Amino acid sequence: MPTVINTNLASLFAQNSLSSAQNNLAQSVQRLSSGLRINSAKDDAAGLSISQNMQSQINGTNQSIRNLSDATNLLQVADSSLATVQDMILRLKQLATQGYDGSLSTSQKLNIVQEMKDLNTEINTTAARTAFNGINLLSSGSSNDLVNSDIQVGNSLTSTATAVTLTGAGQTGLYATGGANASTGLGDTLQTGGTNSTFAITLDPALSKINPGTYTLSAVGNALTLTGSFNGNAQSQTVTVADVIGDATNPRTVNQSLNFSNFGININLATTVATGVTQTGANMAAKFAEVGVRNTLTVAGSNTEISDIRLSGVAAGTYTLSATNGIQNGGSIPAATIANAVAGTYTIKLTGGTGTGAQAVVTVTGAAAGTVSISGGSGYTVGDVLTAATGQLGSSTSTITLAALVAANMSNSTGTTGQVFLDGTVNGVTTKQALTLATGAAQSTQTLNFSSFGIAIDLKSNQSGQSGTQLAGLLTGSNFGGNTAGQVIVSQGANSALKFQSGANSDAFIQIDTLNVQTGTTGTYAGSSSEMTTLGRRISTAGAGNLAALGINDTIETWQTAFKNAAAAVDNALEFISTKRATYGSQMNRLSYVSTNLQTQSTNLQNSRSSIIDTDFAAETARLTKGQIMQQAATAMLAQANQMPNVILSLLK
């Protein structure tokens, strides 16, 4: 090996060794300070990939354990309420058996029935309030979105504002002194000697949807009575008209409210009396009750409203109501719409509107103004134009707009005149169902039961003459938030199948089905199981063999039959609840086993991951000691190597 100065190989070797020793020492310090063997991908690329996959599995498993804990808590909430329902059903069985006792009087049996009704109500309310994190556990779970849904209970289907109006020809009846129907000198002033009384009529907004009709005032002394049909029932209410005593020195005005609260009608009476004059309440009441002058009061306005919406097993989503506002297949057109028509049969087709090209057959009977019937073709809507293909419908015209036919048909009080459609998606399938609307009689209710969707809508007609065609048209009007069609928006849907992840993979889950233990057949507390609805029907619904239909005039045999039916219904309901509680109990046991298994899996996975990624402190401290010694040795050797070129100086002496 030559002796040189510029290249000190020994120093280079020592520098490399020192660098390697420092790198190894730094790695040992990092591992010991972090506790991880793999701190970056360069430490162990394959090991990092394996450990991260295992961490994903661990995270999923641990979250599943928490999910199953929530599921167990949910089941416990449901089971506790089912236990309460079961206790009430056991009490119902005791009462049904007690009621069968022939020694009881009718009044005692009625007391038993009342307790059974109360228990039935409490079963429904218990089911309705049993929820976990907003999820209904013992009721249907379907709810109408009261913020965004157009179709809501209480919505009116007419656009006429409720108001007090003229009751007949001439200046008769009671009038409001303010608002759109204001009047002056038309009977709204009560004038007697020395006094002048004016009145204004206001309507209670909460009752205005159900108070259209004609009401009559009568008086006995200062007692003023309002009589009329309200919400389908004949009613009357009496208020007292107070005396108004004048001031000793100055005229004075006294206001008093004649509030017929049962009808939602309030008469605000302002009486001005001269000095020293007394106006008696009897005199003012008599003025109100003057026959043919002002004793009748007519309220016109809302004819039909949505009285109930029932959802059963409806999935969350938006469902759209639309309607035909015209003549349907087989509909009847009054003769007045085709005056001067020539008898015969005509083929017509639609030349404008939504049904362009569709054909139908019109038959005209009679020489001048027969009845026209439409058959074949499709349902028609406003804007379609019917044009005669052969001959003429009238002696001077060959076309007739459907709007004219609709207007005529709206005045036709017989037959069905409109259809309502509900569109939406059911189980991923686009679905449409059509129902026919009938003319509504006074205080009648018709149900639009869209069974394909599980949505039922009750429409109540407060006055007679509400046309099905009008209803169909109003459903698509601006009454419902300005949309082109009325919408039923289900905000939650039926939570009948709840899934809880039971493993690291997304396809590992346990399903828990919620129940509907309510006993009603319609309305808010509508149930879905026949065992529970039969129980409710036997207790609270009028009908042959049911307790709710019985009274003091029924025979012992009738009572015993009803209690026997109720006891049988109780037995079936008890078996239903017991079976469901057993199912929930077995599911809780299953969840416990699954949770234990997942905890074991998580422990083993974490142990395996630890062996890959965590620092072995015993081995790493040995490497740290070795690294420290190697660093010191390399430093010392580097110092020696750096001194070796000094030997050259001795050769130069």
TrEMBL record:
The protein's name in its UniProt record: Flagellin
Record keywords, A-Z: Bacterial flagellum, Cell projection, Cilium, Flagellum, Secreted
A single Gene Ontology CC term: bacterial-type flagellum
Domain Flagellin N-terminal: 5-139
Compartment annotation: Secreted; Bacterial flagellum
InterPro entries: Flagellin (IPR001492), Flagellin_C (IPR046358), Flagellin_N (IPR001029)
Protein's UniProt keywords contain Transferase: no
Every Flagellin C-terminal domain range: 569-652
GO MF annotations, alphabetized: structural molecule activity
